[in-house]
Amino acid sequence: MTVSRLAPYSSWDDLASFAAEEWTRFEQLVAPKAVSRLGLRYINKVVLPAGHLRLEDWFNTHSQMPEVLGQMSEFLSRAQIQHPKDPRLMALVTVGSTPNATPGHAFLMDIDVWTPALAQSSVSIWEVLPNLRVFKNDIFFGSITDRTLERIRTS
Q1: 103-144 per-position pLDDT tens digit
Q2: What is the model's pTM?
Q3: Average pLDDT for residues 90-101, to the nearest whole number?
Q4: For a tag site, which of 73, 82, 86, 115 has the least CB within 10 Å?
């Protein structure tokens, strides 16, 4: 089962409540015996100012090219990581530049956090989802600089 939302977004509580209602319907129709993967995926677009950018000014995780090679025209980074305290929680983090029709540089930050199979239990799902959300937030806010966060908040 997948639940997706596009902008405009409401709150995590609204989304979790909607997902819980849909999960109850899904359980009644399908009666699943197990959950093979429980995950959250967030895709964020970050638009930065036009002109020459130093990725280290905007992202804490980035590739760095020697200046002698010139300016990067495109960027793509992908890493799979494991939660430092709970090895059952995994994340695939992809950050890349995108073509942008407006002035500036657009980057997509795709954060997919998950845990493998769970015994079928609605209680375990709703206990694990908040942990996945915290992990996703740790990744997002740990990957951007204060400068980027300020730009996001004021745009």
Answers
A1: 778 899 999 999 987 765 555 888 889 999 999 999 999 999
A2: 0.86
A3: 86
A4: 73
Predicted confidence at residue 117, as pLDDT, reads 72
Q: What's the pLDDT score for residue 97?
A: 87
Instruction: Tell me if 67 is assigned to some domain.
Output: yes
Residue 12: inside a domain: no
For 144, the domain range is: 34-154
Give the Cα separation of 94 and 79 in Å (integer).
Answer: 7
The arrangement of strands across the sheet holding 105-119 comes to 34-48, 105-119, 90-98, 76-82
Q: How many domains does the chain have?
A: 1
Share of the chain above pLDDT 90, in %: 48
Q: Which two tokens stand for residue 134?
A: 């915290």
In a domain? residue 57: yes
Query: Is 46:107 a contact under the CB 8 Å cutoff?
Result: yes
What distance in Å separates the CA atoms of residue 153 and residue 155, rounded to the nearest whole number?
6
User: Which CATH number covers residue 57?
Assistant: 3.30.2030
> Residues 6 or more apart from 90 whose CB is under 8 A from it?
80, 81, 82, 83, 113, 114, 115, 116
Angle at 8 between CA 154 and CA 149, to 5 degrees: 25
